[in-house]
Every structure is written in C-alpha cells, then in structure tokens.
From TrEMBL:
Keyword Lyase: yes
Residues covered by the NAD(P)-binding domain: 4-301
Entry coiled-coil feature ranges: none
Domain of life: Bacteria
PANTHER family: DTDP-D-GLUCOSE 4,6-DEHYDRATASE-RELATED (PTHR43000)
UniProt protein name: dTDP-glucose 4,6-dehydratase
Family membership noted in the UniProt record: Belongs to the NAD(P)-dependent epimerase/dehydratase family. dTDP-glucose dehydratase subfamily.
Species in which this protein is naturally found: Mycolicibacterium aichiense
Pfam family, one: GDP_Man_Dehyd
GO molecular function, one term: dTDP-glucose 4,6-dehydratase activity
NCBIfam families: dTDP_gluc_dehyt (TIGR01181)
Signal peptide annotation: none
Listed EC numbers: 4.2.1.46
GO biological process, one term: nucleotide-sugar metabolic process
Amino acid sequence: MRLLVTGGAGFIGANFVHSTVQERPAVAVTVLDVLTYAGSRESLRSVDDQIRLIEGDLVDESLVDTLVAECDAVVHFAAETHVDNALAGPAPFVRSNVVGTFSVLEAVRRHGVRLHHVSTDEVYGDLPLHGDERFTAQTPFNPSSPYSATKASADLLVRAWVRSYGVRATISNCSNNYGPYQHIEKFIPRQITNVLTGRRPKLYGTGANVRDWIHVEDHNSAVWHILEGGVCGSTYLIGADGERDNLSVLQLILALMGRDADDFDHVPDRVGHDLRYAIDASALRAELGWTPKHTDLTEGLTSTIAWYRDNEWWWGPLKEQVEAGYTERGQ
Ligand SMILES: NC(=O)c1ccc[n+]([C@@H]2O[C@H](COP(=O)([O-])OP(=O)(O)OC[C@H]3O[C@@H](n4cnc5c(N)ncnc54)[C@H](O)[C@@H]3O)[C@@H](O)[C@H]2O)c1
C-alpha cells in the first residue's frame, strides 16, 4: 500500500508514521507537510531513510494532485491546531483547515483514492461540567473557537464530497491526545517542560475544565482500524474514557515529577474556554473491534514525562520562545 500522510511531521502524524513504519513494513509512506512552527523534520529523524518527506502546502493543488495520484490512500492530519493561536489570528486556520481540506478532497475525487480525514471532538462544542452526557456521531456541530469552526467546516466538506461525488472517505473525531513529540505549547508538555526547566506550571482559571485524554498511540491504532475496516461515509468517534479536569492532570504531573501539589501559578482563563469534552466511542469498539491499550493515565503520563526528560534536544530550543509568547498574552 502506498500511503500519503498529510501533516506527518506534526505530533499525531509523526507518531502515526513511526508506528506504521514499525508495524507495517509493507506500507510505503509519503509525508506531505509544510513544516509550520508545529511540524519538524526532527520528529521523523529516526525513520527518515524509510519514508519520503515532501515539504509542501496543502493548498498547492498541483502538488497535492501529483502526490494523491501516486498513492492508494490518504490519511489527512495536516491542520493548524492550537486554539490560543486561532483566537489571536484565525486566518491560517481557514486557509489550512478549510481550503487545504478542499484541495485534498478535489484530488481524491479526481483519482478515486480512499481518504481518512482526522478531526477533533471540539467540533461538537462543549458539555455541561457536571453530568454524564457524551458526544456521539449524532451530536450536532456547535464549535466555539475559530479552530473548531474550521475543523467542523472541513468535516462538512468531507461529508458533502462523499454524498455528492461518491468520494470514498471516513472521518474520525478524537478527544485530547498526549504522548511523545507533542509541541510544548500544548497543555501537558508545557507543564512537564516547565518543571524540567525550573519554571512553575501554569493553569488556566481554576482548572475545572474537563478533557477526555487519550494516548496518541491509541488514537493512531483507531485510525488504522477505520482505514482498513471503516464504512465510507461514516464518522467514528475516538476516545478512551479518560475524563479528567485540568487541575487533576496538573497535580498528577507534579506528583510524578516529585513536586508539591500547589507548586503552580493560576493564569487568566482562555476566552470561550470549553467546559467539558467526553466521547462515547462504543460504536468504534463494537463495529471495528478497537480497544485502547493505554487506559491508565498515571502510566501514560509517566512514560510521556520520561520521553520529554530524555529528549530535550527535540524541545529545548523552542522553550524560551514559547514561554515568551505566553507571557506576552499574560498566560
Ligand atoms: N492534538 C490533539 O489532541 C488532537 C485531538 C483530536 C484531533 N486532532 C487533529 O489531529 C490532527 C493532527 O493534530 P496534531 O496535534 O498532530 O497537530 P500539530 O499542530 O502537531 O501538527 C499539524 C501538522 O500539520 C502541518 N500543516 C499545517 N498546515 C499545513 C498545510 N497548509 N500544508 C501542509 N502541512 C500543514 C504542520 O506543519 C504540522 O506538522 C489535526 O487535524 C487535529 O485537528 C488533534
């Protein structure tokens, strides 16, 4: 199988490329990535002689057309992804997430290539903090931020291309991921690298917001299940029953790193901060037999902390600049 992975130099994409190369040697992987600040050649360094990395933009229709024509399937991860950046400047989100997905869709339509589109549970908006309601594939879209609005727009384009043009595509909406190679602007790696560099971790507001954490390897194993067994036109929700509020996650990181439970600073909350996300992944489990492996958050965070401790070469050069950006925004 010749597989095109867009955004394969980003967090989830790079993990997907690593596990694919390791577990499926018969798959020939091409990565298309424009290498924004969030993408890095270094994330693919250990597999660079086993894959092809093309530095290019999703909105370059002729490049995307050429690459799609050469492959059997596309897994589309590439996107602008950081909510704080979307709030500060939404234009790149519309360009990459909406126009970029349109470009991929037109290419797979022309060449009859199978597509899996990777999306987020943030398209559904948020849930009340207390309660047991969870998102399903039937939950209506209700995005809160420019990030989630552009992801919802892309999902709608995919649905329409399936219906109108018979494109062979599936969609997945996953909850919050953690694991190796995640940019240190994101919540978990920011806190870990703050501790590793002698800074105090930072918590938005009171930390009551709830996220449904999943290890990136479990997200990616679900993507493979859907690519191989999913029904075209279907949307699959991916989650591993990992609901935790941000304060508990931060205090777990502090405990695992030998710091006091109150050794952090509160910073002003994000505007429009979604309260709670929770995924009902029972359809994916029942239909495709997928099960997550990393269901113990303490274990998953322990190995993630160890990865950041051992790989300062990967994140160290970024730390000053990322924190300077947060300081400028008062966070
Ligand atoms: N991180 C999460 O918790 C999470 C959860 C659910 C879904 N998702 C989705 O998974 C996908 C990957 O997320 P991530 O966390 O790995 O993101 P990331 O920001 O770490 O990586 C995104 C990658 O896409 C590339 N990219 C961006 N715009 C591009 C363009 N115009 N052309 C080519 N490449 C471009 C970047 O260079 C980067 O390598 C996204 O679609 C995101 O919406 C993420």
